[in-house]
Amino acid sequence: AYERRFPTCPLIPMFVASDTVSEYKSEDGAIQVIERRCKLDIDAPRLLKKIAGVDYVYFVQKNSLNRRERTLHIEAYNETFSNRVIINEHCSYTVHPDNEDWTCFEQSASLDIKSFFGFESTVEKIAMKQYTSNIKKGKEIIEYYLKQLEEEGITFVPRWTPPVACKSESSTSHPRRPVSPAINIPESATKEGLSNKEILNTSSSPSEPTAGTPDDKLDADYIKRYLGDLTPMQESCLIRLRQWLQETHKGKIPKDEHILRFLRARDFNIDKAREILCQSLTWRKQHQVDYILDTWNPPQVLQDYYAGGWHHHDKDGRPLYVLRLGQMDTKGLVRALGEEALLRYVLSINEEGLRRCEENTKVFGRPISSWTCLVDLEGLNMRHLWRPGVKALLRIIEVVEANYPETLGRLLILRAPRVFPVLWTLVSPFIDDNTRKKFLIYAGNDYQGPGGLLDYIDKEIIPDFLGGECMCEVPEGGLVPKSLYRTAEELENEDIKLWTETIYQSASVFKGAPHEVLIQIVDASSVITWDFDVCKGDIVFNIFHSKRAPQPPKKDSLGAHSITSPGGNNVQLIDKVWQLGRDYSMVESPLICKEGESVQGSHVTRWPGFYILQWKFHSMPACATTNLPRVDDVLASLQVSSHKCKVMYYTEVIGSEDFRGSMTSLESSHSGFSQLSAATTSSSQSHSSSMISR
Lower CB count within 10 Å: N or C terminus of the chain? Predict the structure, then answer.
């Protein structure tokens, strides 16, 4: 009855098709092993499928029938995204030990989400939903085929008996596929991280070029195709930094191309690159930069008067962005929209640039990690030196330099007027030296001669306003009508500030003054989830439970319970007279978190009452077990010498009725780097009990 599910089953709509990979039969006919590659249409949001770039997922399923022992064992694992998500399922049909006419059925599965474009929790929920529905339907499907067999007159299958004389082996194999005999996977192999696919030595479809690369060495073809020329030292730096990120930012590390940008920006100094990369990852997460392209629509004023847009590509295949700065009314845009909206728009341009670089890498078959910017300054005058406008420009440059290093391949500045040196004097100190080397400045019509535009851009795509033949759809800009101007109060009331639009809160942690968050739980078995980044210093994370509510913190900033600081708030809830074990209890083991680490986890509550999440200053030990202190420890002790730490956190409580029977390591659905997440061997594995994943 079970075999009738294949090659496809109308009762399982998501099961589209299957192909036999290999088939084995023993000489006596007692053992039969069939391995199939199954094509599934997972019920997932369209956005997730679009981001993942797949319509179907493939699983490998091995069915081992042992007629001698009267058992059927079914093993399945995912082939698609196996470097990001590991799913293993095992089912068995066996004879009941007390009644040989009864069949026992057992089913188990494990899910290990390493990284999935920042949608780790979404994938977990989808997997749980699919798995639960499959369990409910499993019995219904097997009964359907049993009834079908009965209608065909098949109600009994004689038991297997060993043949009197051994016949010649009758094994069949799929063409050009190796025979895959039934093998018991040794425990040591599992511990060493070998997958079923590797042990069985069966061939599989080639993985995507962007799949994960080995930890100790990058594949030469992968480097050439996606990263460009790297020296052994540069390759080593990339692997070491990526490995560090995998250990500290589990499930959410950037792609190799993006890590490489930060290394190049600091001349492959790992310590310096790590520092700016961690700051950038925290910034992206705090301000939800990954979702700008999907969730934010630029105001109409920007669409009409911001004189910039994407325009084909240069001769090297880099995306080309055209900015007619001289035609743009920077004062009018700042007065009509505010500095924050302009910054947000520039960030969306940079995010679009990253996306276009990936597309052009696929189109041209070589690594393209930066874009070219063409800036036309015709019309630039003293109006553009309006102080608030220059201030906004400097801030935009500062943010872009910090978070999008090495993304500018070349900057072509055309028709620079006499006032340009004044603007350049104001702006150039804020631009990185490596970036400044990429600037080419042309005065008047010099760009039309030798060494001009034609050296970098094909004649066919030079914009019409520069004397070319290509129609450029970039807005012409012009003066923003004063009727669209708004006061500072109106802009503030618009609530469009990028820095305030975040689900995360900041807190300061001092020596002797931890930061604490109170969560009241009414229903037992609720799930408390957390997601936090240690921005400065080292901290200890604790979770406590109390049956009685702590006293509310005092409002005055000088009180013992509450401290207000520019870097974030500090609230203390546990009264000094409370005793651990009497007034409150610890429900999770303390977790030491180092500076730069990103931590996610969850706790399934056992009792109602009051739960306190605590971030406490972590003091360096007075003496170490080793003779000499590590360099990292010395640097860390210097960094926290001020006895102050900073934490950015988000917490959420999920009702037990929403996740009854699901796995408990429910990561925050708001965490992750959807644009920059990539293949990683780090793990945020689900367990059957409460867990903290770092």
Answer: N
Start-end of CATH 3.30.530 domains in the chain: 2-152
State how far the Cα of 647 lies from the Cα of 505, in Å rounded to an integer.
8
Indicate the range of 204-208, 237-241, 268-272 predicted with least confidence: 204-208
**Domain 292-483 class, CATH top level:** alpha beta
pLDDT digits (tens, 9 = 90+) for 460-479: 999 999 888 889 888 888 89
pLDDT-derived band at 694, boundaries 50, 70, 90: very low
Given the structure tokens 């640039």, which residue do they identify? 353
Residue-by-residue DSSP string for 372-383: EEEEE-TT--GG
Q: Is the backbone peptide bond immediately before 7 cis, with ω within 30 degrees of 0?
A: yes
Q: Give how far Cα 382 sits from Cα of 35, 244, 537, Å.
A: 74, 49, 46
CATH of domain 220-287: 1.10.8.20
SS3 447: helix
Q: Exposed (0-12), middle (13-18) or buried (19+): which is 530, by Cβ within 10 Å?
A: buried
Q: What is the pLDDT of residue 676?
A: 39
Q: Which residues of 365-400 are buried (b: 16+ CB within 10 A; e: fewer)?
A: eebbbbbbbbbbbebbeeebebeebeebbebbbebb
Section 347-362 average pLDDT:
93
Q: Is the predicted pLDDT of residue 204 greater than 60, yes or no?
A: no
CATH topology of domain 2-152: Alpha-D-Glucose-1,6-Bisphosphate; Chain A, domain 4 (3.30.530)
Cβ atoms within 10 Å, residue 630: 10
Q: 252 is written with which tokens?
A: 């959410």
**Could you confirm whether domain 504-550+569-620+642-658 is CATH 3.90.1150.10?**
no
Numbered ranges of CATH 2.60.120.680 in the chain = 504-550+569-620+642-658
**pTM strictly above 0.70:** no
Tell me the pLDDT band of 502, cut-offs 50, 70 and 90: low
- Which position has the token pair 């931590």? 599
DSSP per residue, 251-281: T-PBPHHHHHHHHHHTTT-HHHHHHHHHHHH
Which of 171-175, 181-185, 506-510, 556-560 is most confident? Answer: 506-510
H/E run at residue 85: strand 85-95
Distance (Å, whole) CA 671 – CA 252: 8
Give the whole-angstrom CA distance, residue 579 versus residue 584: 7
Residues sharing a CB contact under 8 Å with residue 597, sequence separation 6 or more, in sequence order = 248, 249, 533, 534, 694
